[in-house]
């Protein structure tokens, strides 16, 4: 089932603001990892291949992280996923995309 898509454009940061943001993230990395690995939802980050997947994703897909990181997000989608959703997933737009997707049955 495909839900409504929602894209939020990330704000543009001045260099100092960006450095402060990176510092804050690094200072709170343990908390961030705990949150990402505790939520009951699959989270992955890609560019263009998957570069991060939380524990829920790895357990749900029953796949080794190294193997998953060789995939693009499109490789995980069921054939019934509409073309416009596939195109949006691989777009170069900066933002956060939130979809409820039907995944390929092999996972």
Structural commentary:
This protein is α+β, with helices and mostly antiparallel strands. The chain contains five helices and four strands; from the N terminus they run βααββαααβ. The strands form two sheets. Strands 1-4 form a two-stranded antiparallel sheet. Strands 2-3 form a two-stranded antiparallel ribbon.
Give the gist of this structure.
This protein is an alpha+beta fold and 107 residues long. Helices cover 38% and strands 12% of the residues.
Keywords:
107 residues, alpha+beta, two-stranded antiparallel sheet, two-stranded antiparallel ribbon, 5 helices, globular
Beta-strand portion reads 5-15%
| Sheet/helix structural class | alpha+beta
Distance between the first and last residues' Cα: 16 Å
Q: Give the topology string: H per helix, E per strand.
A: EHHEEHHHE
Mean pLDDT: 76
Question: Per the principal axes of the C-alpha atoms, what is the gross shape?
Answer: globular
Residue runs with pLDDT of under 50 for 5 or more positions: 1-5
Q: Report the helical percentage.
A: 25-40%
Please compute the radius of gyration using only Cα atoms.
15 Å
Q: Could you give the count of β-strands?
A: 4
Major sheet: arrangement of strands: 1-4
Counting DSSP H or I runs of 4 or more residues, the number of helices is 5
The description of the largest β-sheet is: 2 strands, antiparallel
């Amino acid at each position: 089932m495909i839900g409504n898509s929602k894209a939020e454009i990330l704000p543009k940061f001045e260099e100092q603001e960006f450095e402060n943001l990176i510092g804050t993230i690094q200072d709170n990395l343990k908390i961030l990892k705990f949150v990402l690995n505790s939520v009951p939802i699959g989270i992955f980050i890609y560019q263009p291949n998957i570069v991060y997947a939380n524990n829920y994703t790895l357990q749900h897909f029953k796949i080794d992280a190294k193997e998953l990181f060789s995939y693009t997000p499109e490789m995980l989608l069921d054939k019934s996923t509409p073309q416009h959703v596939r195109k949006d997933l691989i777009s170069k737009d900066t933002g956060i995309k939130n979809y409820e997707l039907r995944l390929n049955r092999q996972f």
